[in-house]
Amino acid sequence: MPGRTIAALLVCAASLVLAAPALALDIADASPPSGVVGVPYSYTFSLSPGSGSAGAKWSIDSGVLPPGLRLSSNDRTATVLGTPTQAGSFHFFIKVRDKPGPWVCCTEEDFTINIDVPLGIVNGPDLPAGAVGGAYGYQLATSGGTANSWTITSGSLPAGMSLSPAGALVGTPSQAALAKFTVTAADGSKAAAKEFTLRVTEPVLVSPPVTKPIALGHRFLVAFAAKGGLAPYTWAGVDLPQGVALNPTTGQAGGRPTAPGDVTITVQVTDVLGTTQTASAKVRTVTPLRIVTAKLRPARNGKRFTGRLVTSGGAGPFKLRLVVKPRWLRFDAAHGRLTGTPKLKPRKPRILVKHTAKGTRRVARYRPPVAATYDLYLVATDGIGERTTRKLKLTVRP
Fold first, then answer.
1. How far apart are CA 240 and CA 261, in angstroms?
2. How many C-beta atoms lie closer than 10 Å to residue 150's C-beta?
3. Which residues of the chain have pLDDT under 70?
4. Are strands 161-163 and 168-171 parallel, antiparallel or unpaired?
């Protein structure tokens, strides 16, 4: 009996030694990966091979899981899953309790899960505009990580442009466009996509104004016009003459010249892209229109008369008009010439009574005409609307 008892004890002891490693609880070594806010997360913890028994229960003993995640127990494994809602570093202890019985046992270990903010593209959606023929460069950037790849996933860039692997939009646009495209940036397992709009315009062009001459002492106002580029435009004068000013918003230039001659106005326009263009215009300043002829030579009755009316200053074309004139006088307005033959009527004859031997008779004595004076009113108008008038006297001698 003693020998049989000792043998039984030895068998029991041996069985205890063999069973003990299988019943001791141990969580397999683990390093939970980082997660991203808004991205579904899942990671499974498990018991080490041979440890514990069926029916183990898993729980969070202390600390907290990242908000949005939960622990799901499943016998020898437990899974942390869900969608993180908050970034940060979260430390917690996982506890495992074995199935109740004669070998009740438990263990716990600490873990950390880091939750990162999601990758995002911070630019846009409207990008700085470009100009046809102008060099373009713009760097895209991310938040929540540094993208290691950039790609166009839909749409297309304007002709002549490309997206570099580092996220830079570069090139020289070759034609006007309103491009819409989607850029995707990736940083390992994180990715972000965003739609952009990029406008490419024609180069800014300036149209100089059509100018008219002005009379000295008068004011002028001319307007330059711009198109292309990207409005609004900013105007600036380039060595403007004294007395000439420019409106930086509208492109209107004006002033009052102090001397006759050409006034040259040079302006520069700049659009919001920084492209510039210059243009010039000339305004001719003339002396005021005046009638030079102040007196006409006398005409002789019955003799052909010629004369000329002369003006100075102003700007052509000129128009001359005689408002009042005698019927015999002709006026060539194109050349300012006066021509005609005056015909004055003689005075009423004088009647004389003569007494002779034969009786009395009446005799009419011729009386020559007297000198006549006519008032002529000359109106002169030039091509810019200046007008002047002069009264002239024309005397016809008998």
1. 15
2. 19
3. 1-23, 100-104
4. antiparallel
